[in-house]
Design a protein that fits this description.
- This protein is α/β, with parallel strands linked by helices.
- It folds into two domains: 223 residues, outer membrane lipoprotein receptor (LolB), chain A (Clam); 163 residues, Rossmann fold (3-Layer(aba) Sandwich).
- A 14-stranded mixed β-sheet has the order 8-13-9-10-11-14-15-2-3-4-5-6-7-16. Strands 17, 18, 19, 20, 21, 22 and 23 form a seven-stranded mixed β-sheet that branches.
- The two termini are 31 Å apart.
Length: 442
């Protein structure tokens, strides 16, 4: 959930429109695709992640300077502050023990129509300087966006400042943050935005968001407050804990972005299953058994395809091949929550599987060749089969943003059920083979 919050802050925090609005957006965060719905009413924002009903939601109360995160499955919520920004007057000097955030927004003069509204093209550059000890991280955020104009009723502190503040909190930094803004004062509502954040180590955090639809609607005020039957918790860990866990055990403070260590490898792009830099220590080194978290399988195919039972099938195959599978109940579209649950369960890795292609052919027809991007290299089944299923597979260490494995796997068979099961078998085999290779390199 934390990663999604950061993407949301980059795209929506600066301002809110006066009319009740409903926006549907396509979002890509660190290469992970999803959709969200954003509601705006009377200086309040609500973002619902993924399918309806959403597993997680975030409410932004700009006037109250607070953010409310909702776990709609566990029926819990967490409130964190969003203090107003301290600004640095022109000509003033920066005192010791402070981090300076410089934000410059420039209107390129280009205009384009989105949903019948005229949008401005604005580029934003934000950099930090100063800070003591762990606070000196020199964050760099570049944003290229299109914004439509709308009357404003409320304004939060800048998205860049919220990103910086939460990053400093993650490093237990207590330095004061001062903000200096130049150029365009009012952005508007973002309809297309691309952002890249880089820290002093060179690690990157990428967000792309495109609005697919805008509706003017009358929204229920109750949507912008925690439901009465939800329980307030004190930490992010308690918020996303599984429903059968003990709330309050080993609570950790809510934190912001944790940039990945510099590995100089990045996501695999050579079709050979190259590791993207693993630093997480295996929890079962004595026994040699890898503990692997399995998230619910998702599907982005246009055709109707049921993923029911595939998570358990994959877990069974991981166990059969000598691993120790752990079923993770977290929303698979909320990568942070899934990774946090994997950490709590002591997992070495966590698997995310998305069905990206599902093809069938009638008797006598041949399925066209499906291009494989590589990475895992898992291919199986009967080459003459009438059903083909393709999946994108990403394998993460719970505390690392960059995937250890990233690629596609596909399977061809004569009926949907057996082809889906075969795909899970192929995925389990190729994942376990590559992970064992990784362990042998340590």
């Amino acid at each position: 959930m934390k990663l999604r919050i950061l993407g949301f802050l980059l795209c929506f925090v600066p301002l809110i429109a006066v009319a009740d609005l409903k926006l549907t957006n396509r979002v890509t965060i660190q290469g992970h695709n999803s959709e969200n719905t954003v509601l705006s009413k009377n200086g309040m924002l609500r973002i619902d992640n993924g399918a309806t009903p959403a597993a997680t939601s975030v409410i932004i109360d700009c006037a109250g300077h607070r953010m409310i995160q909702l776990n709609n499955i566990g029926r819990r919520y967490l409130v964190t502050g969003m203090p107003a920004a301290d600004t640095l007057a022109d000509g003033s000097s920066q005192a010791a023990g402070t981090v300076m955030l410089n934000i410059n927004r420039q209107d390129t003069g280009e205009r384009q129509s989105f949903f019948g509204y005229k949008a401005r093209h604005i580029k934003t550059m934000a950099t930090t300087e100063g800070g003591s000890g762990a606070c000196a991280d020199n964050l760099h955020i570049a944003t290229d966006g299109w914004y439509i104009d709308a009357p404003i009723t409320a304004s939060c502190s800048s998205a860049e400042r919220e990103i910086l503040v939460r990053s400093l909190e993650a490093h237990h930094c207590e330095d004061r943050v001062l903000t200096k803004t130049s150029g365009v004062e009012t952005l508007g509502i973002p309809v297309l935005i691309e952002t890249k954040a880089t820290n002093s180590s060179g690690a990157e955090f990428d967000v792309r968001q495109e609005t697919a639809n805008i509706e003017v609607d009358t929204l229920d005020p109750a949507l912008f407050a925690p439901p009465r039957d939800y329980t307030e918790v004190a930490s992010y860990r308690d918020l996303i804990a599984p429903q059968n866990s003990t709330i309050g055990a080993q609570a950790i403070p809510n934190s912001g972005p944790n940039f990945p260590p510099v590995t100089k490898a990045g996501p695999n792009e050579n079709g050979k299953g190259v590791v993207a830099g693993a630093t997480h220590a295996t929890t079962n080194q004595k026994s040699g058994v890898l503990k692997i978290g399995i998230t619910q399988v998702t599907s982005s195919t246009d055709q109707s395809f049921s993923v029911e039972g595939l998570q358990q099938e994959l877990a069974n195959q991981i166990n059969f091949l000598g691993g120790r599978a752990v079923i993770l109940p977290a929303d698979p579209n909320d990568r942070d929550a899934a990774n946090e649950q994997a950490k709590q369960q002591g997992c070495d890795y966590v698997i995310f599987t998305e069905i990206t292609d599902f093809r069938t052919a009638s008797v006598g027809q041949k399925l066209g060749r499906v291009l494989n991007r590589g990475g895992l290299g898992g291919v199986g089944g009967n080459g003459n089969g009438r059903v083909e299923i393709v999946a994108n597979v990403k394998v993460f260490q719970p505390d690392v943003f960059t995937p250890a494995l990233d690629g596609t796997t596909n399977f061809r068979g004569n009926d949907v059920a057996n082809t889906a099961a075969g795909l899970m078998h192929t995925e389990a085999r190729t994942v376990m083979l590559n992970l064992k290779k990784l362990q042998g390199q340590k």
